[in-house]
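Case study B.
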Amino acid sequence: MADHHFGGIKIRHLYKIFGPNAQAHVDAVQKGLTKAELNERHGHVLGLSDINIEIPSGRIQVIMGLSGSGKSTLIRHINRLIDPTAGEVLVDGVDVVKMNELELRAFRRHQTAMVFQKFALLPHRNVLDNTLYGLEVQGLERSKAVDVAMRWIERVGLKGFESKYPNQLSGGMQQRVGLARALANDAPVLLMDEAYSALDPLIRMDMQTVLLDLQKEIRKTIVFITHDLDEALRLGDQIAILRDGEVIQQGTSQDIVLRPADDYVANFVKEVNRGRVVHVEAVMAPPRAGFSPNGTAIPAGTTIEEAIRMIANGPDNDVAVVSVEGKQLGMVNLRQLAGAMVNSGSFASQNERALTEAL
Amino acid sequence: MDWFYEFPHMDDDSLRSLKKAIDEGFRAFTRAYGDVIEGFFSPLQHFLIAAERFMTQTPWPIVTLIVLAIAWGASRSWRVVLGCLVTLLAIGYFDMWDDTMRTISMIFVCTVLSIAIGIPLGILMSRSDRLQRLVNPVLDVMQTMPSFVYLIPVVMLLGIGKVPGLIAVVIYAIPPMIRLTDLGIRLVDKDVLEAADAFGSSSWQKLKNVQLPLALPTIMAGINQTIMMALAMVVIASMIGVQGLGQPVLKAIANQYFTLGIFNGLAIVGIAIIFDRVSQAYGKRLQKHREIVHG
Ligand SMILES: Nc1ncnc2c1ncn2[C@@H]1O[C@H](COP(=O)(O)OP(=O)(O)OP(=O)(O)O)[C@@H](O)[C@H]1O
Ligand SMILES: [Mg+2]
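Model:
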């Protein structure tokens, strides 16, 4: 296993219809029957419709959408807590849908781990015994399981709480247990279904930081569900937006904020703090002929907010934006940056122009 | 218009021969298989005799100590232990010790039997709606059919004695055990169960690690109910030869000995309270770390 490179997750043409006679309606849905029509004519609920997502190994894929859009349904297909009506779910190249019961059990024990919105801890077990649940199920020796569990309990900041019961802990601490339980499994795939939605905002930020810090080290393939855009933008390497069981847009946070696919997405991103999301490349102007950068240069990938912080105290003129290799991509000034923070104007086109000219 | 005023029933001769046919059929069955059935139940008889011998032949101070130790172990409450002590001493002082020991041993065996049959059956029922639909009406019959009625076939099969008495008591007392096990498992939090699934638990691991522990308070309530119902059957069981506190009560009814009846009745109440408080306190202690301390 050591030198095997995990192949990521690929979801292909996934359909899920809820109802007693789901199979009979797949064809119609594939030919374009809508969710409303299906419900009206046949009394079946269209949970997911033609989902295609590729999640590279070691990345955080965020899935976003309003309540009832099918997020939980989708994530439960990855470890097959829900059986699809049609389609494939390839995890590390193996189709989860085709596994028999034994294979599926082994797959869940070793390849995936899950964190739940309502924590779902065992109330009669203390923190330690909750954390080692996955290892116990795998059949690992108790002493080894305790070692591993203790390491993760410490890692999520719960050292000293091993013998407390879940009801003696706050929500944030309970979810740390949930996270430790999932991480103790050391599975390449981590599934998080609105893991932080039940936490209050400060604790939530805290837990996001915990996850991001850990991820630098563990490099899991994480599927993270949320209906909070700020959370999505902060965590997601890739974001997919779901509505009524369909993916209506997927891409990076930049793609989502700068080029919302439709009104639904635009509505989502309207309230977002752009300064923290949009990168300077999206705002910069093409480099002027004869422009000679002086002093500070802003590396590409810096957010607008960061960039403002960097040049706020400097002189009030244009500053260069440079690529990792040091190539000059464009230039920005304080006014452009400040402007971009407050209006959602179409700097996308500007960005494209700048980039094509730079390259 | 005769049929209007009087229900047109089956004619007398047919009815009589129907009843006779059933009775005779059952009697023939008894003659043919009585021994086999008796043999089948003989381990139960040994168990009953051993339990009774232990309770009646162990010196009373030791029995008292054992009961108090169990009460303390289960409840961790001095009040419960003290209550047990006072009850036992009063029972002994009014010369009802031996009968009480016989009754306790009977209840003990009956409870063990009810748990051994009831919990597995309850587990099976919780897994299959069909089985639940099948078993539920049977349990209804067991609980509502007057116990005297099912005493008849039991006595016909096994005669008078401890085992038929035990069977009659178990039939009456086991339904809550089965029902509450089924209910407890069905009420287990779906989210926790899903988590167990997500970590790849086998169905035995789910049962052992999640369903039974989470259903335990409800199952304990079932055990408590079973014990109480078994005690309520003591007097009826004594009619078919079960020794214990029921027999003096029966004698008191026949001869109008008011005080004898009251004393033995109170002794039954006393041990009922002991069983109840101890098992409830134990159930509560099991639930301790579930009370919501933190929002
Ligand atoms: N077992 C089921 N039977 C019928 N319909 C279902 C079932 N499970 C989910 N649905 C339907 O599928 C749709 C998607 O549900 P899902 O739970 O995936 O939404 P969600 O995006 O996770 O919402 P939330 O944010 O509230 O958790 C909903 O319309 C829901 O009613
Ligand atoms: Mg959900």
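The mean pLDDT of chain B is 91. The remaining cases will be described in the next quarterly update.
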